Amino acid sequence: MSGEYNHESTPLLPATIPRRIPTLTNGVAHEGESGRSGFHPRHFFQVLWRSSCTVSMLVNVLWPFVPLAIILHFVTKAHLWIFAMSYVGMVPSANLLGFAGQEFARKMPKVAGILIETTFGSIVEIILFLVLIVKHNAEEGNGDEGNLIPIIQAAILGSVLTNLLLCLGLCFFFGGIRHQTQKFHAIVSEVGSGLLLVAAFALLIPSAFYSALKSETVPLLGALHETFTERKLQEDVLKISQTTSIVLIVAFFLYIWFCASSQHSIFDEVIEMDEHRDADREDDMAKPKFTMTETIIALLVSITCVTLLLIFLVEEIEHVVESGVPDQFLGLILLPLVEKAAEHLTAIDEAWDGVINVALYHCLGPSIQTALFNGPLVVLVGWALGKPMDLNFEIFMVALLVLSILVVGNFLRDGDSNWLEGALLVVVYVIIAIAAWYYPNPDVAASNGLEGLDGVKNVTISVEMLEQIRKLLQQT
């Protein structure tokens, strides 16, 4: 492309604003133009049905599950059926949100478009986390009833694992079937895996702090002169999590600023290499598109459907767990699968078309946003609501995250992919899903808790007995 301004290699936030942009017409990027304006119902539903690719179009046959879930929620008490219908209905709703975000991004300069598309792809996850933390109430019922924090923690790490193992594995697999081997630019893998390592390190600090000091706490509050009790340790971990979350969110905005302002950012490399490799680029440009008005309507409709269905899902979680589905499997596998459905379909379609750099970023980018922004955001929201949401993950979860990053980093090191590597990543994900199914619920398993302390394991002391011991010690 020639001319006095090349918007594909110019930063999103340039130092000076150029006088004209020949590649834009009426402020809309060429491949995002619909040739229409306003809202046209017939064209709107035609574009919605065709969606972004064949797989996304087939997903639209699941739309009847959305009104069915809403009807069941208000007229029946069939909890498992409501959960199942809402779960299936989430797929086309999230798919529409992803497609509408993609249409909106196409109407922007390309660098801005990828940032916007990635952000819209995480809206489902942010809504899920916010609904879970708002619904959390550990004081309801007995034991862990109403305690949704373990599920939120599992969902945070499950989102990262789903993108790194399942989505990336399917991209490598289907891309490898059609193209045998696909080469991607080193900047994509190096920057992506590097940011993931930094984010994982920060996320795991509270867990490491807790594990290192749990054996130093005293089990009897008020019975001894020691002040470092279990409660004090938990309060310290909560404060560390809250402060770390602020730092991570700042780091996320620094990352966004760098990508938006640097001419040599990851986006420029991705666009430059993959722009002309898309196997169906001409077909995509020839497809009818939403107008800006239709795009905004599609975004509003999809966000409304997603929010309603996620509320229904969260309300039925207790009944699903009581039916035999473990907490860890629900948070680590089931919820991330459905809220990431649209992103996965988009990434797999891009890998199939040979746009492996963009596909790779759609796997790594959401993982980075989950670790640097979405997860920390729910900690801060919990802080504002007075709910003790922290980043003290189970040791089982910690091990899964670290090992997954190491496995993915090893596959990215050589700079190319094939179907075998993709199949192996999916196999690793399936093994994790099997282990999560058999992992006990938090009220049984506390691998990062105090139950394993020598000398106090399996000890139960009533409040009356604790008070008697305190009085005896005071008398002595």
From TrEMBL:
Recorded GO CC terms: endomembrane system; fungal-type vacuole membrane
Membrane topology label: Multi-pass membrane protein
Entry's transmembrane regions: 47-72, 78-99, 111-134, 154-175, 187-210, 240-258, 295-314, 395-412, 419-439
Keyword Endoplasmic reticulum: no
PANTHER family per the UniProt record, alphabetical: VACUOLAR CALCIUM ION TRANSPORTER
Protein role: Has a role in promoting intracellular calcium ion sequestration via the exchange of calcium ions for hydrogen ions across the vacuolar membrane. Involved also in manganese ion homeostasis via its uptake into the vacuole.
Name of the molecule in the record: Vacuolar calcium ion transporter
Annotated organism of origin: Pseudomassariella vexata
